[in-house]
TrEMBL record:
Keywords of this entry: Signal
Signal peptide span: 1-22
Residue span, LysM domain: 174-217
Protein name: LysM domain-containing protein
Pfam families from the UniProt entry: LysM
Residue numbers spanned by region Disordered: 351-375
Domain of life: Eukaryota
InterPro entries: LysM (IPR018392), LysM_dom_sf (IPR036779)
Length: 417
């Protein structure tokens, strides 16, 4: 019986060590530069789009656009999203204290909140109780002690930039919290990448990840070439998604079959600057095609960035060997009302095909542009070696709280036998 007591105690110690350590990719940085990134977030309750957006200090329309949900539908910001739904939350990834963090969000504690529940439930494991405690200088705070209702907390969230590239190609990085039952091969397959790429990006010594670990997943993207004077300089859009810019006057999309950025007028703002190309009557997003015996004359009005409150555009024209087909927009879907998948992530789209230059670009919702389609997910990334990061330890308190009571019961039972 003594040997059994020792075995159970030793097992408890090993198990506790295994469940309280969680890994997250850390990218050293310097300066005040930032990039666009995505946070993988699983809803802990039914929530309005506007509530999720407020939690992460982002725009409701931008949240919908990042998930290819219909951001222009009337009342879209007040739609109720179901518990368990996995969303990609757009954020700015900034350099703070020598490492990459998204712009820290502020959270007001509610009755019954603890540091542990704020970290593990409200923010779905994107931050740990210890990280929130350190960020708010609460050195002696018990993670399970109730917080004063209304107390303002700064919540640091993980992200990486890696120069917004993967294998020298444009990329947006998704911070993904590993769930119970996940495997690295399964995660890689879900995002149509490889185990090797996931391991390289996250500086992993083996293809093993524990629940609560946070992996950086590179997603192929369309990059802009806007000047530094533009407020949206560096705009980059993950394949299969949309981004809103110029005060929600312009929507830019990427894919699904092209990695070229396409921007058209949006209908979300009541008052927008002129979107007409200079010295012409052509509007932003318009493409004209004229077949000739020598090839195809293609002219288009393209977006060039938001500079000092002005939407800059440029008119380009050229002769191509053949006329391009219509541009395909990522399919927009209505916000779901239920989660019908076995896993919280949504199934992937097919990988992007060869880019199609030019083409007629209809507005989402118009003929030739699908408004309703299958669930959104993210496409294939390269199999080659990605940028290296470092790995740090961060507590994940919810797993230990779930398992420790069971271990204590087992110890008490065996000690009294």
């Amino acid at each position: 019986m003594a040997e059994l007591h020792v075995f159970v105690t030793a097992a408890a110690v090993v198990l506790v060590v295994a469940v309280v350590s969680a890994k997250t990719t850390i990218e050293p940085c310097s300066g005040s530069d930032s990039c666009q990134a995505l946070l993988g977030y699983t809803l802990y309750a039914d929530m309005k789009v506007s509530e999720v957006a407020a939690l992460f200090a982002t725009d409701p329309a931008a949240l919908l656009a990042a998930n290819a949900l219909d951001f222009s539908a009337p009342g879209a910001a007040h739609r109720i999203l179901p518990m368990g739904l996995f969303l990609r939350v757009p954020t700015r990834c900034a350099c703070a204290d020598g490492v990459r963090k998204s712009v820290a969000v502020r959270y007001a504690a509610r009755p019954g909140d603890t540091l542990a529940t704020v970290a593990d439930v409200v923010f779905a494991g994107l931050a740990s109780a210890d990280q929130i405690r350190d960020e708010n200088a609460l050195a002696s705070a018990d993670p399970d002690a109730p917080l004063d209702a209304g107390r303002k907390l700064v919540v640091p969230l993980p992200c990486v930039c890696f120069n917004s590239s993967d294998n020298n190609l444009p990329a947006v990085y998704l911070s993904y919290v590993v769930q119970v039952g996940d495997t690295v091969p399964g995660i890689a397959a879900s995002y149509e990448t490889t185990v090797t790429d996931v391991m390289n990006v996250n500086a992993m010594g083996s293809p093993v990840a524990a629940p609560g670990d946070i992996l950086a997943i590179p997603l192929p993207a369309c990059a802009s070439q806007f000047p530094k004077s533009a407020s949206d300089h560096g705009l980059i859009v993950a394949n299969g998604t949309y981004a809103l810019t110029a005060g929600n006057c312009v929507q830019c999309s990427c894919g699904p079959n092209s990695l070229d950025l396409y921007c058209t007028p949006a209908t979300l703002s009541g008052s927008c600057p002129s979107m007409q190309c200079p010295n012409s009557n052509v509007m932003l997003g318009n493409v004209s095609i004229h077949p000739t015996s020598a090839g195809c004359n293609v002219s288009s009005c393209s977006y060039g960035g938001f500079v000092n409150g002005t939407i800059t555009t440029s008119l380009s024209a050229g002769l191509q060997p053949r006329c391009p087909g219509p541009h395909q927009f990522p399919a927009l879907t209505d916000p779901p009302t239920t989660v019908i998948h076995d896993s919280t992530y949504l199934p992937p789209l097919s990988a992007p095909g060869p880019a199609e230059a030019g083409g007629v670009m209809p507005e989402p919702g118009s003929a030739g542009s699908p408004v309703q389609g299958g669930p959104f997910a993210l496409p294939k990334v390269s199999t080659a070696k990605g940028p290296a990061g470092s790995v740090s330890e961060a507590p994940s308190m919810d797993k230990s709280r779930q398992i420790l009571p069971f271990l204590v019961c087992c110890l008490v039972f065996y000690l009294h036998m």
